[in-house]
Amino acid sequence: MQRLILLRHGKAERESMSGDDHARRLTPRGRRDALEAGQRLAEMGFVPDLALVSDAARTQETWESLQPVCEACQVRIDPSLYHAEAQTVLDRVREAADGAGTILVIGHNPGLHELVLRLLIEGGASSDLLNTARSRFPTSAAAVFLFNGQGRPVYDGLMMPPRGGFD
């Protein structure tokens, strides 16, 4: 793996019809923002070879919304990514790393946010960048990292949607 993209799912409904958090779906804004996030990542040249997606409804719908800009990407639905801690996400990425140039993870906070901060710190990010990343990692936010020959992360981009979405 040369590049890792961590993408938080799009804006989701507060509750599902069943009351099950796992079944919460995207709102119309969430679908629009997910597509916009995918388009912006593609415009910046960040197109994944492999997507690792939590099995929650909102993460799968996020993938479906941005799939048109990632047509050649393989996808793996991974139940262990549902509300996974940062280390679990990183373990899944490392397990999938062989043969993939760019891996996209679509998951949940707080685990994704914690992993973003961890990789920024390991990569020696500036205090300004760390403060920006610490302040929030909202729905449809993405963080991109390159990995050097020693496997050390290097910050490559942070995409934060404006408050209220990309509209």
Structure commentary:
With 167 residues, the chain is α/β, with parallel strands linked by helices. It has a single domain (3-159), classed as Phosphoglycerate mutase-like (Rossmann fold). Helix content is 35%, strand content 21%. The protein is built from 5 helices and 6 strands. The protein has helices at 28-43, 57-66, 86-96, 111-122, 127-135, and strands at 3-8, 50-54, 74-78, 102-107, 142-147, 153-159. Strands 3-2-4-1-5-6 form a 6-stranded mixed beta sheet, with helices on both faces. A hairpin with a 5-residue loop joins strand 5 and strand 6. Helix 1 packs across helix 2 (57-66) and helix 3 packs across helix 4 (111-122). The protein is globular, with a radius of gyration of 15 Å.
The total of beta strands comes to 6
Give me the CATH architecture, please: 3-Layer(aba) Sandwich
Average predicted local confidence, pLDDT: 92
What does the largest sheet look like? 6 strands, mixed
The CATH class label is: Alpha Beta
Tally of structural domains: 1
Low-confidence stretches: none
- Neighbour order of strands in the largest sheet: 3-2-4-1-5-6
Tell me the radius of gyration.
15 Å
Helix content: 25-40%
CATH-wise, what's the superfamily?
A: Phosphoglycerate mutase-like
How many angstroms separate the termini?
Answer: 33 Å
Briefly note the structural class of the backbone. alpha/beta
Query: Approximately how much beta-strand content do the residues carry?
Result: 15-25%
Q: Which overall shape is indicated by the principal axes computed on the Cα atoms?
A: globular
CATH topology: Rossmann fold
**Number of helical segments?**
5
Secondary-structure element sequence?
EHEHEHEHHEE
